[in-house]
Design a protein that fits this description.
- Helices cover 39% and strands 15% of the residues.
- The chain has a six-stranded parallel β-sheet, sandwiched between helices. Strands 6-8-10 form a three-stranded mixed β-sheet. Strands 7-11 form a two-stranded parallel ribbon.
- It starts with a strand and ends in a 9-residue tail after the last helix.
- It is an alpha/beta fold and 314 residues long.
- It folds into two domains: 189 residues, NAD(P)-binding Rossmann-like Domain (Rossmann fold, 3-Layer(aba) Sandwich), CATH 3.40.50; 86 residues, UDP-galactose 4-epimerase, domain 1 (Alpha-Beta Complex), CATH 3.90.25.
- α2 packs across α4, α4 packs parallel to α6 and α7 runs parallel beside α9.
Length: 314
């Protein structure tokens, strides 16, 4: 009988990637939940529906995580709902004795001025960057939660920290899409207009971007092979500036790069968040999709579906 793996946030960027890699895991049945399937901020509902699903493992990916604009407007919502979802999943896994639970953290939880490259030991060195502090603190709380639930209840619960994620099935909505998906949609819609294409910030911040299917495979490796309380960085360390990403998107979409302007009056976030993933790589010998290759696949996926709202999140 196939093991049943419950994936919260199953309609999101990483959650949907599990369907793309399903053929590689014939011994597993992925049960994908979106917010329509269960209100994870409600503990009673979460316990009830996890009991009905009868999973052998939970991969908790669900979160409210959007751009800087949303973070500055709704900080209490981000803090409250993410903490409630995390605790509901942990409590359901505890009460129902789920054999293994995987929790998700974020690179954005680290102190704004922590040493580079960032290791998993720096989580609590100081406050996170102010541009997304409430989400960062909600995710940072996952780490002591893992230690506490393992210590008191003997649960097999682990924590993984992805970095920037991109790929098919990203959110392309104007109000809350992240950088790469926002660029792809705006550049496509204005490709033939001749108008200037404005990008927030000066383009200097450096970011690591991991292809969504790689992230799904990394989660599966950890589900099968990792059982320690130490949080792991599971994203790539390939790094690109926001300016180079904008130019690469334009090149792939055959848009004149000279049309791109950078608005230095807009916030850009911390200059660098380079991570150290040596613990994970040392254990797994994991191989990532090169950024350019993944970006080409992502743009191709978008162009095949735009502007059909039934096939793409707009």
């Amino acid at each position: 009988m196939a093991r049943r793996i419950l994936i919260t946030g199953g309609s999101g960027l990483v959650g949907s990637a599990f369907q793309a890699i399903q053929a590689n895991y014939p011994d597993s049945e992925f049960i994908s939940w979106s917010s329509r399937d269960c209100n994870l901020t409600d503990l009673a509902e979460t316990k009830s529906k996890v009991a009905e699903a009868k999973p052998d493992a939970i991969l908790h990916l669900a979160a409210i995580s959007r751009g800087i604009g949303f973070s500055s407007k709704y900080p209490a919502t981000l803090l409250r709902d993410n903490v409630l979802m995390n605790m509901s999943v942990l409590e359901a896994a505890r009460v129902l004795e789920i054999p293994k639970t995987v929790m998700t953290l974020t690179i954005g939880m680290y102190p704004a001025d922590c040493p580079i490259p960032i290791t998993e030991d720096y989580i609590h060195l100081g406050p996170p960057h102010g541009s997304n502090y409430s989400y960062a603190f909600a995710k940072r709380l996952v780490e002591p939660s893992i230690r506490a639930y393992r210590a008191e209840y003997g649960m097999n619960v682990i924590g993984l920290a992805p970095n920037g994620i991109y790929g098919p099935n990203a959110n392309y909505a104007y109000e809350d899409s992240l950088m790469i998906s926002a660029l792809i949609r705006r550049f496509h819609e204005n490709k033939d207009s001749g108008e200037r294409l404005t990008v927030w910030g000066d383009g200097s911040p450096l970011r690591e971007y991991t292809y969504s299917e790689d992230m799904a495979r990394a989660y599966m490796w950890c589900l099968d092979n990792y059982n320690e309380e130490q949080v792991l960085h599971v994203g790539t360390i390939e790094e690109h500036s926001e300016k180079s990403v904008a130019y690469m998107v334009a090149e792939i979409m055959e848009i004149d790069q000279n049309r791109i302007d950078f608005d230095t009056t807009k916030p850009a976030g911390p200059l660098r968040r380079s991570t150290d993933n040596s613990r994970f790589i040392g254990l797994s010998k994991f191989q990532y999709t090169p950024f350019r290759t993944g970006l080409e696949k992502s743009i191709e996926w978008f162009l095949e579906r735009y502007p059909d709202p039934d096939k793409i999140r707009l």
